[in-house]
Amino acid sequence: MIQLLFGAVQMVGRSSTPVLVLQEQDGSRSLAVWISAGAAAAILSAIEAESLDHPSTHDLLLEALATQSAVVESVTILSVADGVYDAQLTVNGTAVTCRVSDGVALALRSGAPILAPEELMAEHGIASEPVIEEPGQEDAETQEVRQFREFLANVRADDFDKPAQ
């Protein structure tokens, strides 16, 4: 089994569909899994430092498991068919079927490893090689993203405090 680490949740395409990116711990491959906006929020809230006033469903599940001395041991991404990944959550030695996004949200909260078989990574893993672009060779979308990032890097909160006249 290969251990995967949380890489990112990225918005892709014009519809801004979230994609979960899991990176091979000791390698250069990544696994991209299309997820819902709600699943993206659950995953991202697991890595945020702030605690919420009300626990999420994933937090509640972990609390309920803890009351029974149950521990999430691992999340394993088993297979993919027609673009849909199958996963299992292992709790106290018992495997429970789950969505990849729920498994990752629980793994991030509990510190459990995220695993995938070598065969799955060999077939569906994407080699992560740095892309070096020549200056002036950006497509319009890449240029727009770069300009937006530059804007965000330089914007200040008081830029928005002035009422429009």
Topology:
Elements (H helix, E strand, L loop, with lengths): L1 E11 L4 E8 L4 E6 L2 H11 L9 H11 L4 E10 L2 E8 L2 E5 L1 H11 L3 E3 L1 H7 L1 E2 L12 H15 L11
Parallel strand pairs: 4-7
Antiparallel strand pairs: 1-2, 1-7, 2-3, 3-8, 4-5, 5-6
Question: Any key phrases for this structure?
Answer:
165 residues, alpha+beta, 33% helix, 8-stranded mixed sheet
3D structure, described in words:
By secondary structure, this protein is an alpha+beta fold. Helix content is 33%, strand content 32%. A hairpin with a 2-residue loop joins strand 4 and strand 5. Helix 1 (37-47) packs parallel to helix 3 (100-110). The model is unreliable at 159-165 (pLDDT under 50).
In short:
This protein is α+β, with helices and mostly antiparallel strands and about 160 residues long.
Structural category is: alpha+beta
Task: Extract low-pLDDT stretches.
Answer: 159-165
- Beta content comes to 25-35%
Helix content: 25-40%
> In sequence order, what are the helices and strands, one letter per element?
EEEHHEEEHEHEH
* Rg from Cα: 19 Å
Number of strands: 8
In this structure, how is the largest beta sheet organized? 8 strands, mixed
- Termini Cα gap: 61 Å
Q: Which strand order spans the largest sheet, edge to edge or round the barrel?
A: 6-5-4-7-1-2-3-8
Number of helices: 5
Shape: globular
User: Mean of residue pLDDT?
Assistant: 82
